Amino acid sequence: MTAPSQDSSSTSALPRCIVLTGFMGSGKTTVGPLVARRLGWSFVDVDDVIAAEAGCTIPELFRRDGEAAFRERERATIARLAGGDALVLALGGGAIEDEETRTLLLTAPDTLMVHMEVELATTLARCGGTEHLRPVLADEANLADRYARRLPHYRTAHVSIAVDALTPEEVAEAIVKAALGRPADPQNN
């Protein structure tokens, strides 16, 4: 499927899969469906697939099986889904730490990995009140350590977009422009 209102020469370079990565609160699950809608593609959140297949929530999986088992399940799910066509795929925030996953997504043909970069202060503002879903939020020192540890990995993505001051629609537009090989300037839609 081609992007709306684009000539055929610009759509031939369109990737077949756009992968969204970034720290919690960056807006992956909000922006992903907007990007998919603009392109006429499907949107899939990896965490939703994992939870549906496991029959429980992600926090329950962590408690029941531990983080290592969860990350193994996550890696296999991403590898399976990343082969899809006309797909916008949102990763969980920690998926980027897995070297095998990073390598797969950075080297997969016709796949564009987009880092939605968010400041830690923005994460805290956007995610406040969700500590029951994201227990790590209650421990700001641990959260800051995770953020610092993951940021260099996020920045290995093909494209990074600072999203703190942008609306979800502006971020979606910047991602579509990046996918089409155009400069991502969300301020000048």
UniProtKB/TrEMBL annotation:
Gene that produces this protein: aroK
The EC number(s) this enzyme carries: 2.7.1.71
Protein name: Shikimate kinase
Catalytic activity: shikimate + ATP = 3-phosphoshikimate + ADP + H(+)
Binding site for substrate: 47, 71, 93, 150
Pathway note: Metabolic intermediate biosynthesis; chorismate biosynthesis; chorismate from D-erythrose 4-phosphate and phosphoenolpyruvate: step 5/7
Matching InterPro entries: P-loop_NTPase, Shikimate/glucono_kinase, Shikimate_kinase/TSH1, Shikimate_kinase_CS
Natural source organism: Candidatus Sulfuritelmatomonas gaucii
Entry GO terms, CC: cytosol
